[in-house]
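COURSE: Structural Biology Practicum
ASSIGNMENT: Worksheet 4, Part C
STUDENT ID: 0417
INSTRUCTIONS: Below are two proteins. For each, the amino acid sequence is given first, followed by its structure token string. Answer the questions at the end about the second protein only.

PROTEIN I
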Amino acid sequence: MSCGPAHSSARELVAQGKETKLVAETLEISRSSLYYQRQPRRDRADRSRDQEIILACGEKPAYGYRRVVWWLKRHRGRMVNGKRALRVMRERGLLVRQHRFQISRRKDWGKVEAPCPNLIWQSDMTKVWAGPSVGTARFDTGSSQSAVLRVRTHFAEAAFL
């Protein structure tokens, strides 16, 4: 590992037997950078856990990658990285399809039926932007006519028939 020409020459001097403190002070670099030894990196192509992930998916086909990681840790005592499990399951086509519940957002306003007038009443609240007013309308579903409309402001209440 090299952080530049100063560090490279400093490491060479230390390797020749010069005192580390003196070399670091002379070249004005930190002493800790001369003591640093890079750890060898593990092989990223390590596929030793892939078979365990695949077997866990075979035993628990309804489990997603997070549950597979938990299951391996809990029942097999194996620590598996979640990203590795996701990658392996994606490569093999083992991911579980997400089930999202569809919420019906249709408003069934027209489906309320009343056999006779004055049986079912509906209310509607609306805000009037001409000041701090709130309007309330009540409808008789049987006759489909407005019965009462009230407009409430901060100061007074008016009723219209």
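PROTEIN II
(use this one for the questions)
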Amino acid sequence: MWPLAGFAFGAVVGAIGIALGGKEMAEAARPGAKAVAKAAMVALHEARVRQAQLVEHAEDLFAEATAEVAEERTEAVAAAIRANAQKAAEARNDELVRRAEIVAAVRALYAETPGEPSSDRLAAAIAAAEERARAIVDAGRTAGGRSASAETIDLSAIKRTRAGGGENE
């Protein structure tokens, strides 16, 4: 029932009583009207308490949902950061292997050539070293079915590739 219904009913009855009976009827109806007004106030207070409880429950539900969404977003962002970091590590590792192979090839060329090697021989040695580096990186990535990182490139693959390529350590 509407919380102010009792108050409205009491006001209507009181107005009718005053109109029909005058001051005496109003004085006699005063305790009843007062009781009706008190009942209406109690009902209004209870309605406000229930409304506050509903609002509190709704706010709790909204806060929980917001926290879950934030957690899901955080997990997604963290996964993307990890994936990007892994790709960057692999790219750095590939470049380190490439540079190491080129340095080893150029050193070997200078060691076996008296004086300055020709630019054609130097270019060929660098091209062969880059090809070996690609083979090393590919062999390291496929070893064990896992992605390569700076720690997972198989050093034995480097040795095998160099040995197969004509260079020994």
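ANSWER KEY EXCERPT:
Q1: The chain has three helices and no strands.
Q2: The helical segments are 5-112, 119-142, 155-164.
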